[in-house]
Specification:
This protein has 179 residues and is mostly helical. The two termini are 23 Å apart. The chain has helices spanning 8-27, 34-56, 62-84, 90-114, 120-126, 129-142, 148-167. Helix content is 74%, strand content 0%. It contains seven helices and no strands. It folds into two domains: 9-28 and 35-58 and 118-172, no CATH class; 60-114. The mean pLDDT is 80. The chain is globular and about 50 Å long. Helix 1 (8-27) packs antiparallel against helix 7 (148-167), helix 3 runs antiparallel to helix 4 (90-114) and helix 6 runs antiparallel to helix 7.
Length: 179
């Protein structure tokens, strides 16, 4: 689809990261968190598709792509929200819209600019800092204990990123095509 060459260092890094993700998921295999972990994996697969499609559509304006993505997402979830009978005040709608722009829209616009200059493997690896940071935020703000499997998985993800970006640096940096 993208016709991008996958370098050996990227493959090795992706394998290490995959083992890290499996450690995180397998660590909660028998717990009440397992269904949440499966949903997180599904979310990761969907996000990988975002990376791929942003790369494929890199010649399109990032703000347009992000607006379209968020509008389609809103349209898809609207029937479910309406069925639940959720009633929001004007202030709540404003806060949700602000959250959509600040927390979702702005990072996506920045990310869609970035995928013009790095290949999809690099972009996918770099966004893996999120599963590393999430347990830290949960521990800091809610005091939830992080499991040993999660710590091992996070360490493997960091190792995969270090392997890729310290020992197997990308041979070329892509240049934006429409700058």
């Amino acid at each position: 689809l993208l016709k991008e060459h996958i370098e050996g260092g990227a493959i090795l890094a992706m394998l290490i990261v995959l083992v890290g993700i499996l450690c995180i998921v397998a660590g909660d295999w028998a717990s009440e968190n397992f269904s949440g972990n499966l949903l997180a994996l599904a979310s990761g697969v969907c996000y990988a598709l975002v990376v791929i499609f942003f790369r494929v559509l890199r010649d399109e304006h990032p703000a347009w792509l992000v607006a379209l993505c968020l509008l389609v997402s809103s349209a898809m979830i609207a029937p479910w929200v309406l069925r639940l009978g959720i009633s929001l005040t004007g202030l709540q709608l404003f806060l949700i819209a602000t959250l959509g722009v600040v927390q979702m829209g702005t990072p996506y616009v920045i990310f869609s600019h970035a995928v013009k200059t790095v290949n999809s493997q690099e972009a996918a690896l770099l966004v893996l800092t999120e599963p590393i940071l999430n347990p830290i935020w949960v521990w800091l703000f809610w005091g939830e204990t992080v499991s040993l499997a999660t710590l091992i998985g996070c360490a493997l993800i960091v190792l995969g990123l270090l392997v890729r970006f310290l020992f197997f640096r990308p041979k070329q940096i892509l240049r934006p095509e429409n700058t």
